[in-house]
Write a structure and sequence with these properties.
This protein is α+β, with helices and mostly antiparallel strands. Helix content is about 35%, strand content about 15%. The protein has twelve helices and nine strands. The strands form two sheets. Strands 3-2-1-9-8-7-6 form a seven-stranded antiparallel sheet. The protein starts with a helix and ends in a 5-residue tail after the last helix.
């Protein structure tokens, strides 16, 4: 997996609050406003033009404004070999955008005092322990530091496994055993001293949450996050059901070739395992915004504010955050083998956008589409 956390956060600093946009997709239809139709048409034109320019196979976009999804649509192919087209029900791998959902689940456990955000992770784990070393003598790896990528942990991202492969368990992944295709997750600098992106840290957190909840991670996430956010089409299942597999996009490399097997499997579910739609992911972003503003949501308001507050030397808990006032926003990007995506929400207004593609690296494409939308709707830039 290629994680874009830092580069995309800077890359999209110009991508700010969306104004009202007409939905011409399946979520909302509002064809009575000619101005909205013209604006939407220019966005569609930008999407189609830039898909051709950057050889994008398929894309799903959802826009939300003041707490509601106002426009969603799909373009291109979910599977070129089967000529299956993308629509608003097409499932994409969210890649690293899995992390904010895992972070929200960890914070829910913290609200119930079942997970201790600032306690040594080794005092909470039972089936596996993170080896101590010279960097952990005085400072410890804690869930809060894992969530903010300031725990000093290794393994930036994961490559995934081809369908049909024998998959390692979490302990084998964390120790980098031969059955896994990643290095051991270990502490490489003093926890709390600086930020370094670590999918490995979120895999430790995944193990902790399964131990605390007594549930497999997919079931735990469905009950704790997906159901509560109304993400009915989404799943953290490691292997998709036949029904969901029919809706799943196949990933493509930049040379146009499909990823072998169609897509990779990621037992590192908290770091990279979410299958979702642009609309469902928008619902999660809106839920966090609602919680932040003191409205009913997955998290208590104080927890949501904590989640979207930068820790010293780092970012928020599960999200990158930027801007001030009306421009204050939270965001995350993601990239798995054959998939890349981006989500941003403006915390106060509950406005933003989710873009999901089934191509390896769609940064330039997403930048151009957002640039056009920003110009059309005159986003603030502070």
């Amino acid at each position: 997996m290629t994680a874009f956390y830092e580069s995309i956060r800077i890359f999209y600093c110009c991508c700010l609050v969306l104004s009202s946009i007409l939905c011409r997709g399946q979520d909302i239809v509002a064809k009575s406003n000619p101005l909205s139709i013209n604006r939407t048409d220019s966005i569609v034109k930008a999407i189609v033009t830039n898909m051709n320019a950057f050889a994008i196979t398929g894309v799903s976009v959802a826009v939300f404004d003041h707490g509601s999804i106002v426009w969603a649509d799909g373009f291109g192919f979910a599977n070129k070999s089967g000529a299956a087209k993308v629509d608003t029900a097409t499932l994409f791998q969210a890649a690293s955008i899995s992390k904010p959902l895992a972070a929200a689940a960890a914070l829910r456990l913290a609200e119930d005092n079942r997970l201790l955000l600032d306690a040594d992770i080794n005092t909470q784990l039972t089936s596996w322990k993170l080896p101590d070393n010279k960097f952990t003598v005085t400072e410890k790896v804690t869930p809060r530091r894992i969530l903010s990528h300031t725990a000093g942990l290794t393994v930036h991202g994961f490559a995934g496994y081809e369908p049909g492969s024998k998959l390692p368990n979490l302990q084998q992944i964390l120790d980098g055993e031969r059955s896994s295709n990643s290095k051991p997750v270990r502490v490489t600098f003093i926890p709390g001293s600086k930020e370094m992106y670590s999918g490995g840290g979120y895999t430790i957190l995944q193990l902790l949450m399964t131990e605390i909840s007594g549930r497999d991670f997919s079931t735990f996430m469905k009950e704790t996050i997906l159901d509560k956010a109304g993400m009915d089409q989404s799943s953290f299942d490691l292997r998709l059901s036949p029904q969901k597999d029919l809706l799943a996009a196949r990933g493509y490399h930049n040379n146009g070739k499909m990823v072998k097997g169609g897509y990779h499997l990621y037992p590192e579910l908290a770091a990279a395992g979410l299958w979702t739609t642009a609309s469902d992911l928008s619902r999660f972003m809106l839920d966090i915004s609602a919680s932040y503003n003191g409205n009913p949501g997955i998290l208590q308001q104080a927890t949501a504010i904590n989640m979207l507050t930068k820790v010293p030397g780092g970012s928020g808990l599960g999200f990158g955050v930027d801007g001030v006032g009306e421009s204050f926003r939270f965001m995350h990007s993601g990239g798995n083998e054959g998939f890349s995506c981006y989500a941003v929400c403006y915390a106060v207004s509950g406005s933003g956008v989710v873009i999901m593609t089934n191509n390896d690296n769609s940064n330039d494409f997403m930048r151009e589409v957002i640039r056009v939308v920003a110009g059309v709707y005159q986003w603030p830039n502070k």
